[in-house]
């Protein structure tokens, strides 16, 4: 019997279908990328856009495109990916489709750390830009550890429901702390923090892209290499143990990846929730539960969602802007409720 | 050649010790069934053997090495576990779920190699799921689903299979169906099978070796003829059983039984 016979025609068809879906989402991202470049307070027509891209634009067009819009679009793509993969990992490890770095309070933890820094060292220079992801990672990590410790029960480990409930409680606590903190901010800093907290992609310059990029380039491939481990986690703890998965060790590694991705995203984009919830869920509907397909699909859907949300936010109430986080929340909150109503537990 | 021995093991949960001290040897290439009343520690023993529960004292040896000292992946190449109520994640086909059984043999990104595919194919065929391989797992009946989990354990390519109540929730015919499959795997593939069963007659009919437990201790163990005696069943389950020989398999079976208390009442009124 040849190798081909072991893989049924159905399996091959499914593989081709999944690849096709992934390519389609890529295409949609490219289309959205084009639209997004032209959208904003100052419109760029497609012709102007092409001219500017090829170095024939006016100074003003150059500044708008290369210094403001492009870094912002690139950041939404990266952040969307990071949040979606972070959410996929959290959902896989906790076996709970409602887990998401926003809901679990990891985003708030990162936000609190960044906010503490901003309120005590108010500065807008580029120097702390590279420092912010690390700060956010520390905040996200501390929150994750806190949630983990609170949700952990000796002998039983972490139950998905406990993890979720603890996360929600911790997130509420941190949000309260952040509100208290905003009271002692100067008006200018308050303005800045408020916009940032709402999830505006505020880092509209290339240094933010550079600060975020290494995290993505390192953590995403590691996450993908754990696809097999995530598949096994999905079976539940006992079957996973039986299959020889070192549960405690792998869970810690995966949580660290999820926290790193969420923390780095929050440090440049503020509190964007729901991407980590919606993207993995949509991806699961499209390509199934195997993480070899699920992770890349979720990442791309995350990018598409965020780039779309950011474009809508820039376009809908011109000349003012709505932070992308709010646009996402407007779609995400009902989706979360829908998932909640549908879930069995 | 895998040999499984339990050596002076104490095991339990955080605050309760279920088994204080227990030793047993699982015969190689045989079907061993653990029986006993609810809460006697049979599932606990199985979980300890499967390294899901850590032993608080003593050790469990696989091929002469304590399982706590061997990497969990190494053990997974020798011993597969079927939990009592496993729930498959939604959106997986039978082929995909069975392919997860190759986990301990894979590295890196988990692309299925030819050897993996061969094992998956064989596991699906031997459990009679060939026709259904591309169906989603959630669309299957209880009996078929149990077969899928067995197929996953088979794809793991281990010498030992551990099953916790594999026939629970199945109707009579499907119970027998699963047990016959296990018997076939034992006879044709030489698998060592260790399981917990509630049905004494099934245990007697399909096991080479039986271990009867009560209160975390082994009351008696041996061939079904030795274990299935009315005095043993009285000691283990507190029942008075009428035993006879099964016309199909010539093993001792329990025709009917009464609670011990009941019998005493009857005797008194008589």
Automatic annotation (TrEMBL), chain B:
Keywords: ATP-binding, Cell membrane, Ion transport, Iron, Iron transport, Membrane, Nucleotide-binding, Transport. SMART domains: AAA (SM00382). Pfam families: ABC_tran. One of its GO terms (biological process) is iron ion transport. One of its GO terms (molecular function) is ATP hydrolysis activity. It is a peripheral membrane protein. GO terms for cellular component: plasma membrane. It is found in: Cell membrane. Residues 4-240 form the ABC transporter domain. PANTHER family: IRON(3+)-HYDROXAMATE IMPORT ATP-BINDING PROTEIN FHUC. This is Iron ABC transporter ATP-binding protein. It comes from Viridibacillus arvi.
């Amino acid at each position: 019997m040849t190798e081909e016979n072991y893989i049924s025609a159905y399996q091959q068809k499914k593989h081709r279908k999944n690849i096709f879906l992934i390519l389609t989402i890529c295409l949609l991202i490219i289309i959205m990328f084009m639209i997004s470049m032209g959208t904003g307070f100052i419109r760029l027509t497609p012709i102007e856009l092409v001219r500017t891209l090829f170095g024939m634009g006016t100074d003003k067009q150059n500044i708008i495109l290369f210094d403001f819009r492009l870094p912002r679009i690139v950041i939404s793509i990266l952040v969307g990916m990071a949040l979606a993969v972070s959410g996929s990992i959290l959902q896989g490890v906790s076996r709970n489709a409602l887990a998401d770095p926003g809901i679990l309070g990891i985003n708030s933890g990162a936000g609190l750390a960044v906010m503490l820094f901003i309120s005590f060292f108010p500065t807008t220079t580029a120097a702390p830009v590279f420092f912010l992801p690390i700060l956010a990672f520390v905040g996200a990590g501390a929150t994750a550890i806190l949630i983990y410790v609170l949700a952990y029960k000796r002998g039983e480990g972490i139950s998905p429901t406990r993890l979720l409930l603890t996360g929600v409680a911790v997130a509420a606590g941190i949000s309260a702390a952040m509100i208290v903190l905003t009271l002692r901010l100067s008006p200018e800093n308050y303005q800045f923090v408020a916009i940032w907290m709402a999830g505006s992609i505020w880092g509209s310059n290339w240094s933010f892209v550079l600060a975020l990029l290494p995290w993505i380039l390192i953590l995403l491939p590691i996450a993908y290499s754990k696809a097999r481990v995530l598949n096994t986690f999905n079976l539940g703890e006992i079957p996973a143990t039986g299959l020889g998965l070192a549960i405690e060790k792998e869970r810690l590694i995966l949580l660290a990846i999820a926290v790193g991705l969420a923390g780095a995203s929050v440090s440049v984009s503020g509190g964007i929730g729901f991407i980590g919830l919606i993207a993995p869920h949509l991806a699961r509907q499209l390509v199934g539960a195997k993480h070899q397909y699920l992770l890349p699909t979720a990442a791309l859907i995350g990018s598409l969602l965020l780039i779309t949300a950011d474009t809508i936010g820039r376009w809908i109430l011109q000349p003012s802007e709505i932070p992308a986080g709010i646009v996402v929340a407007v779609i995400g909150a009902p989706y979360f409720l829908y998932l909640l109503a549908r879930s069995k537990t | 050649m895998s040999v499984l021995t339990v050596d002076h093991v104490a095991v339990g949960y955080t605050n309760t010790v279920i088994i204080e001290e227990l030793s047993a040897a699982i015969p190689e290439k045989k079907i061993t069934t653990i029986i006993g009343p609810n809460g006697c520690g049979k599932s606990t023993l199985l979980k300890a053997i499967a390294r899901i529960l850590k032993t608080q004292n003593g050790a469990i040896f696989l091929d002469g090495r304590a399982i706590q000292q061997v990497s969990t992946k190494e053990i997974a190449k020798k011993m597969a576990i079927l939990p009592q109520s496993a729930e498959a994640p939604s959106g997986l086909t039978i082929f995909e779920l069975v392919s997860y059984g190759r986990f301990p043999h894979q590295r890196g990104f988990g692309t299925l190699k030819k050897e993996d595919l061969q094992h998956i194919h064989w596991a699906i065929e031997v459990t009679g799921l060939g026709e259904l391989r591309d169906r989603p797992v959630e669309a299957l009946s209880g009996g078929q689903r149990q077969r899928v989990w067995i197929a996953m354990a088979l794809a793991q390519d281990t010498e030992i299979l551990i099953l916790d109540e594999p026939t629970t929730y199945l109707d009579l015919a499907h119970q027998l169906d699963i047990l016959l499959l296990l018997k076939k795997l034992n006879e044709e593939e030489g698998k060592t099978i260790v399981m917990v069963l509630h049905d004494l007659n099934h245990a007697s009919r399909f096991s080479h070796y039986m271990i009867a437990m009560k209160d975390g201790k082994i009351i008696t163990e041996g061939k079904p003829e030795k274990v299935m005696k009315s005095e043993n069943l009285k000691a283990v389950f507190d029942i008075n059983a009428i035993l006879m020989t099964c016309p199909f398999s010539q093993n001792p079976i329990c025709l009917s039984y009464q609670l011990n208390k009941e019998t005493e009442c009857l005797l008194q009124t008589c």
